[in-house]
Amino acid sequence: MAVTTLAPLRPGNLAANTVAFARLLRRRGLAVGPREAADALRALRAVDLLDRTEVYLALRQVFVSEHEDYPRFEEAFREFWGPDGESTGAPPDGAGEDPSVLTDPDAAEADAERLLQEWLEEEAADAEEAETPGYSPLERLTQKDFAALTPDELDRITALVAQIARRVATRLSRRMRAARRSHLLDMRRTVRHSLRRGGEILELLHRQRRVQKLQVVLLCDVSGSMDLYSRFLVQFIFALQHALGRVETFVFSTSLTRVTDALSRADIRAALERVARTVPNWSGGTKIGASLREFLDGYGARLLGSRTVVIVISDGWDTGDVDVLEAAMRELRRRSARLIWLNPLLGGPGYEPLCQGMRAALPHVDVFAPAHNLESLRRLERHLALRG
Amino acid sequence: MHPEIARIQSMLAAGGYVADRDVATAVYLSMTLRKPLLIEGAAGVGKTEVAKVMAAALHADLIRLQCYEGLDATTALYEWNYQKQLLHIRLTEQSDRTIEQREQEIFSDAFLLKRPLLEAITRPQAPVLLVDEVDRADVEFESFLLEVLSDFQVSIPEIGTIRATTIPYVVLTSNRTRELGDALRRRCLYLWIDYPTYEKELQIVLAKVPGINADLAAQVSAFMQMVRRVRLDKVPGIAETIDWGAALLALHRDHLDREAVEQTLGALFKSQEDARAVRTQWLDAWLRALERLRGEPQPWTQAQVERAAAEAAGVWR
After folding, report:
1. B-chain residues within 8 Å CB-CB of A306?
2. What is the pTM of this model?
3. Closest by alpha carbon to B111, among B74, B150, B85, B73?
4. Could you give the ipTM of this predicted complex?
């Protein structure tokens, strides 16, 4: 049915169809704009329109810019241009009905231009629609947990946590500056300078490398067994994020939720409320492995690298598959600069990481440290410095 | 198929590259629309190879910019030839030219060392510019690259703006160690290259390992389908398959058995951990699956090999 609602003003025109298809893709979340639509039209003029595979490949190469979007494109393509029935080279719907687009490229181009223009004008209206947030009764319920904290308590803890986070952050950046003090010789300026002394190099000039910021990824367990700590830890993360800059925060229980944006609200109460709303399984069971895998697949490419410190905050009580956890930890370790595991239980006397999940994770961890009180958070600085 | 695409496909084949239609179409469109081609995929699927054969097919030079963390604009664009500059200053010490004049002299074309990006846009004939592993470069470099690829001109403070004499064919590759910016992605045509199917890999092995017999080639290719099903630190790519085939051939092996594989494991697995895991966990299952497969008449189909691979993987999962 989507095809009929999308039906262009003039059925059978390839240009119109292509622009309509571009808009469908955009609605499906692909990064497609008028420029891509224009490129697509150019591409279609360069390939054999009677060859469905070729049309498919050309459009995909123009419209899709990430492998993850291949299935979505495939689905949309089939839906819009019809199923792959006529494999013997029938044209995509519409392309054949109006032979003028094949013979009269100028007409097609003028048409395309008009359609692209129209699309551009509609863009603004589209953007507003997308902002409406979702809301459900179940999500409302989970908000109450936070309401239980008295405003006074919350303020006091927040202030303290923020203070620590700020101190950790400044010390961290100072340490990184010091570690990178090795100057690079600036030959260009050195030579230019020496010219004034007849080519004698009396003085070496240096250039400073810009400090590259650390990327911190926090993956925080908010499942039932972590109840006591997670709320408190999220506040610490919140404060750290403000002080440190490049922190990406995720919470997980049975699945993973990115909360960076929720936490970047200026008001912590609003932020916590929003987190409670976005996390569907607050205090549910834990599938650490699956959640880490979700992170690796969904965000790994963008966030991991040789300047990334990954911090997992969890007690390691895992109700999921241990093999999955093992594999995810191994990959996480390999793709980041440092992997830190903070375990609130570690602070308790006589604690030994005996639970299955923790045992599977431990071999892949660079730092295994407690996170049960303010003091342990203060010591986080030591672990965050990349080259200490 | 568009005749040009067919032509490119056979050109690539002549260059020893077994190209699927999507690769041929991408190369063709990138040349026709004059847009850079971004190729992503796991290590060892033959991304870089595309640029090489493209250059060969076009009879164009290949200029390669290998990216790494810390790569900056000067290293990629140009550098001054300092030794030559210093020498020149010495030699002209006695001249009565002013400092300004002499400065102008030493910061002129003659003292400029062109690095890949500048080289690529100042050639009389358009070369293929390969920006390899662009995901390894910093974000800052990525935006710089984007600028050069959009404007095809660079400004050098001492000389002024250098405009491109030719627009190179650009191929970028990425292993996805870092997510590339949207701006760069959208500037390019996009192609994802997967690990080859059994049939394709067999074709490649036969083409790239001269003297290998069809039996061994089939076994090697089927074996690779099983290898790529399990989670390893470094999944071997096509280059490893070819190395392995050559190694087996050098040892005069005509079929795969435990001894043959163990002797040549190093050609296939570059990490100790992987090699150990394969030897202790997987090898027996794979060899058994292969044994079963050998009972079936050749040529094997993708489906047959996939079934065997799935069975082998099921042994431990």
Report:
1. 69
2. 0.62
3. B85
4. 0.85
